[in-house]
Amino acid sequence: MGNIVKLGIDATDRLAPLIAGFRAELKSFKGISAEADLAAAITEAMEFFAAGFPIYAYEEAGRYLGYLICRVDGAVWVEHFYVVPEHRGRGIADALYDVAEGLAAPDTPYNWIHPNNDAMIRFLAKRGYDVLNLIEVRKRRVGEVLRGKVEIMGGVYEY
Predict the structure, then answer these.
(1) How far apart (Å, rounded) are the C-alpha atoms in residues 134 and 15?
(2) What are 73-100's pLDDT values in tens digits?
(3) CA 88 from centroid of its chain's CA atoms
(4) Is 114 inside any structural domain?
């Protein structure tokens, strides 16, 4: 069993592979196959640390298996939330998300989720989250090729 640890800037090198995995997974929701970019992840981690965002990791046997980054600005926003795929389904996500809910208490953390991130939507629904309050709608740009579709409230939209 692992522990939740609050990270400092000295953890950047250990955190960066998870951020790179998170970013590659987000791109996959748009149909983009991308390699994990470790250099970009290091830069991004350092920016979050410099901005003072609270960052937590689930650590087990000396390895980080998941992480959570929140922005606290009157409300708590879950900026990054990721568990290494081969360790999902073990309660790591629940343990990390409990931290976000603790930071937001007695309110609730806010989440910005890609519409194709079915796993995250199911995870939050299981925890009682069911309020959708932001949908971005725009016209296709000239020459833009859209890669996917999403169904929301019975409507099918391209993105």
Answers:
(1) 30
(2) 999 999 999 999 999 999 999 999 999 9
(3) 14
(4) yes
Task: Report the chain's terminal Cα–Cα distance, integer Å.
Answer: 40
Give the total number of structural domains in the chain. 1
Asked whether residue 46 is assigned to any structural domain, the reply reads yes
Residue 89 lies in a domain: yes
Helices (H) and strands (E) in the chain, counts: 4, 7
Q: Determine the 3-state secondary structure of 21 from DSSP.
A: helix
Span 123-159, pLDDT tens digits: 998 999 987 776 667 788 788 887 777 777 677 777 6
Which CATH number covers residue 20?
Answer: 3.40.630.30
CA distance 83 to 67: 7
